Amino acid sequence: MEIKKVTDAAFRKYGRVVEGIDFSGLVAKLAETPLPADVVYEPSVELLEALPVFGELQKKCYGELPIQIGYCNGNNYKLNAVEYHRSSEINVGGTDAVLLVGWQPDVTDDFTYETAKMEAFFLPKGTAVELYATTLHYAPCNASEGGFQVAIVLPKDTNLPMEQVHEGGEDAHLTARNKWLIGHPEGGLPEGSPMGLIGENLDISK
Question: Nearest 5°: CA angle at 161, between 84 and 75?
Fold first, then answer.
């Protein structure tokens, strides 16, 4: 599939490049985090949250709301699922990476979504983007064979375990705090995960 740049006009529907903040220290610390053969996600990492950029992001991008900085690292070429939040998410490239994104208003009333509507964007190392709350996304993908490391900034407690079971309609897709998930049947998700992606499980290596 075509891979555009996050500076392309087509990306404006999904987010923006974050400017005016120095991410060099965060990129350096990301290099110290694990880079496994599969994919690992940690929502809150003290090593990253101790950096000065934590306070800058909290004030400038989240209006002083409590936030968390974690990472999603590994090796991946497939879509597998999409998720969305009731808030923006900031991704910072510790390495080059590719982001697969879609638009939440295209999700149908019965919570299905056609994977053919997804778009791919190249996120260069050291660049940060804000993904709007209406942007469907999931794990980043490799831009090279060396894997990817991406810092993930979200409101505090996002993606942590829920306190109760949610059922029916959109609530049935809530799989963690502030995380609504629509899975692909071929995405290798845990048994019982909410499904709804229709079409090919996109693979950027093809």
Answer: 60
